[in-house]
Amino acid sequence: MQIKSSLEDNRADELAHFFDLIKPKIVEYVSRADPQSEKYEADSLGKFHGPEELKKIFSNNEDLETGIKGNDSKLEGFVDSVLKYSVNTWSPGFLDKLYASNNPIGVISDIILSALNTNSHVYTVSPVLSVLENDIGKKYAQFFFDDNQDTCGGLTFPGGSWSNITSMQLARAMKFPDTKEHGNSNYKFAIYTSEHCHYSVLKGAILIGLGLDNVFKVKVDKEGVLDTQELDRVIQNSKEKGYTPLYINSTAGTTVFGSFDPFEEVAKIARKHGCWFHIDGSWGGNVVFSQQHRKKLQGSRLADSITVNPHKMLGVPTTCSFLLLPHVSNFQGALSLAAPYLFHGREGDDENFDLADGTMGCGRRPDAFKFYLAWLYYGTEGFASRVDHAYSICKDFVEKISDKPGFSLVVGSKQNLPACLQVCFYYRPEGYTSDLCTPVTRFISRELHKRGKYLVDFSPNPSPNDSQGEFFRVVFNSPILTPDTVDDLIASIVDAGRDFKPQN
Amino acid sequence: MQIKSSLEDNRADELAHFFDLIKPKIVEYVSRADPQSEKYEADSLGKFHGPEELKKIFSNNEDLETGIKGNDSKLEGFVDSVLKYSVNTWSPGFLDKLYASNNPIGVISDIILSALNTNSHVYTVSPVLSVLENDIGKKYAQFFFDDNQDTCGGLTFPGGSWSNITSMQLARAMKFPDTKEHGNSNYKFAIYTSEHCHYSVLKGAILIGLGLDNVFKVKVDKEGVLDTQELDRVIQNSKEKGYTPLYINSTAGTTVFGSFDPFEEVAKIARKHGCWFHIDGSWGGNVVFSQQHRKKLQGSRLADSITVNPHKMLGVPTTCSFLLLPHVSNFQGALSLAAPYLFHGREGDDENFDLADGTMGCGRRPDAFKFYLAWLYYGTEGFASRVDHAYSICKDFVEKISDKPGFSLVVGSKQNLPACLQVCFYYRPEGYTSDLCTPVTRFISRELHKRGKYLVDFSPNPSPNDSQGEFFRVVFNSPILTPDTVDDLIASIVDAGRDFKPQN
């Protein structure tokens, strides 16, 4: 009996055919969202569709049984629907999240990763991508630690949360190596973080077996910056109650306000109490590329670990997150477990090239390659100009709304600009009488989305002293944004606000 | 002053240009690895290159400073080198890992994900992909639990390790909800697993703050199957010592031998002791698609959680891993933390569409889409024939080496075939005198790689009673494999073995 499968017959031809099928669709998709293109459509972002509606549209149950191989029209119909009903993140109106659109070189990096279909867990199967990850991780880390620090480096993790969680595990394994055998049982560990931190710090504490009781949330000032005197007091008090200080999380670019904690001060307190000092720079860490703004990171060289996500401020395709260490060999030193069926060891190499061995995971998509190629394409200079441009757009928006009736900043001012690339503001339409902005903010946000033009986010104040309800949080983080976009966004908010009725 | 960036000028044109630049390279790359193509080259897998050599080749320091935008020849040179020095996983000789090559529809799914550049953490930015993930997660889960079970479902995690780790956190949060506040402090939790389990179970135990002392490794029989009587005894003993049984890990397709634990029996013991019952089916779980082999999963309907990776046996691009639950709402119920700046809540929806809320992470690459599109393309029938074909190739190999001098199986026989798609065997070349196969196995494996033809893995026996050293572990998991590949592989091993000299 001949054993043969026809499932993957003529792969090269099929792939060539698929390239021809998908290219015009994707190029068209990007054109429609690009103000520079003749095909630009102002509502290309896409309108809101609820889950029930989409479930009906994407109900492919019969085809899932038999497959649609060989039926191009079904395949094209499916792809067209996916593109049509998704949010077109290439649109200048995608101002919702801390990441922006992809870009052409980013698509190329994803295509290469897909073609290689490798796994950067061991060197044997991913030699090139392991070398590039080590190389770019070191270069990146030297921006934060020290240009000449030869020991520093970084690895990617599948998102900022996992980078943060890994840093907690590193802290525990490095400072209390007996926990590898005994767990937390001999300690009452404490973690300290500002009340404006990302939720992954809390989830991380739960995951590593501490629980929320062991997380001490420290007050911030009205701009969302960690109060270091309070931090010192909180640590001192917790020690008196029998806690063992494990880990201080500080933030470079908080999620809501975009604030930067005072890292030099935090470092001193961490040293005083023998605590691990982590910087969650998932969002704001990449200001390191800007000559003008990198001073916000002063003290980063003193950190024990730094999370920073090229997929946010640098436009690398999602997801790409690095955890950087002053001594990169600690990944393997602290996290390795002998798994001889996978990690066979190689003689004469002083660097770790079996990268998964230094993580708490196994299989890894080689996300670092996307960063490497973006860096190679745009250069350090390109990244610098990207960050500076985004800050300029942000400034433009702040200056313009400062003069507009109805707008008021939640944090920052024309003179004292927001620390990062998001602007948090209230908007009250003419005649709006309530103190609380939640209903009008949600209404306008929904209206803008309904028009297919803007997707903007909103949030309550993460400090408990808030009294004006939810506000807009708009993120300016794309090289395609111009002052025209800013003008149009402001006009669109005012316009949508006119339709608000208090009973809505 | 006009604020303008030229970094992403003319994105649509640039993207169209890049498609034209990359398409011939990728198609050529696949052609060279495809025995059906005229351009097939037997050594297309690629030869081994050490890290020092590659570091010299990929030393782009000056270009990283200024960038190479606009310089197509530099870009092409870089891409060509990445392809040239990487392992070509499309080659029929890529038999090393538990995943096979990508396929054309897989590349299309990655291109669409890259174009969408969305983040499946909240519905607002990823409406279609959230609906598709819920839909396919449920359909997938019904294969393991019950066709009619309307409550079941699954979410993706960035690799089997994270799915397993998440299942441990679910177990703790569901069974001992007070741990969310107090951590492990009130308990001395115990985890039980076979000594052949994947290392992620151990790393997971460390990560969740238990430590290796709290992991009880249970003996296996000579085929690597968990001894359930021993499991019962170990749990009983641990209880008498004051441990609280938390979690039993059993495996569908162990990493080295590919064995399946007896899930019906494990379920009974789990119920008896009030333990969470997890199945790590990262590798073997997808036999669920085969009418002939799905009986190996008998009892899976009783599991509390199941990990299964479409990126392994089903040829979906890496990484794509699901954690399936009988009650999918428990993801959010057990793992959610209020984060009102991200999860705004929506009225009238009884399903969770803000998917990150039910995970311990935040940003998520929507890996489920790759699985959805592969399933839609090949159909349930295609997946079934894929799995059955791979088993036939495996059988062909086992039958052929059973008659060949020098070959001996570590586990299984012609009559009692290996349980999964890998074959573990020793090979001793003619005249080889040592009992221990480690040097000859490593030599042959390295030789095959040097020839650019085959990448095969090797491993020590995970049971301590092993006495013959390391053996080959070859994985037959691709629709392009034929009996000709099998014949050629056997001949190549014999041939490479001829060059072995004991002093090597």
From TrEMBL, chains A, B:
<dbReference type="GO" id="GO:0016831">
    <property type="term" value="F:carboxy-lyase activity"/>
</dbReference>
<dbReference type="Pfam" id="PF00282">
    <property type="entry name" value="Pyridoxal_deC"/>
</dbReference>
<dbReference type="InterPro" id="IPR015424">
    <property type="entry name" value="PyrdxlP-dep_Trfase"/>
</dbReference>
<protein>
    <submittedName>
        <fullName>Piso0_001446 protein</fullName>
    </submittedName>
</protein>
<keyword id="KW-0456">Lyase</keyword>
<keyword id="KW-0210">Decarboxylase</keyword>
<dbReference type="GO" id="GO:0005737">
    <property type="term" value="C:cytoplasm"/>
</dbReference>
<feature type="modified residue" description="N6-(pyridoxal phosphate)lysine">
    <location>
        <position position="312"/>
    </location>
</feature>
<dbReference type="GO" id="GO:0030170">
    <property type="term" value="F:pyridoxal phosphate binding"/>
</dbReference>
<dbReference type="GO" id="GO:0019752">
    <property type="term" value="P:carboxylic acid metabolic process"/>
</dbReference>
<dbReference type="InterPro" id="IPR015421">
    <property type="entry name" value="PyrdxlP-dep_Trfase_major"/>
</dbReference>
<comment type="similarity">
    <text>Belongs to the group II decarboxylase family.</text>
</comment>
<keyword id="KW-0663">Pyridoxal phosphate</keyword>
<dbReference type="InterPro" id="IPR002129">
    <property type="entry name" value="PyrdxlP-dep_de-COase"/>
</dbReference>
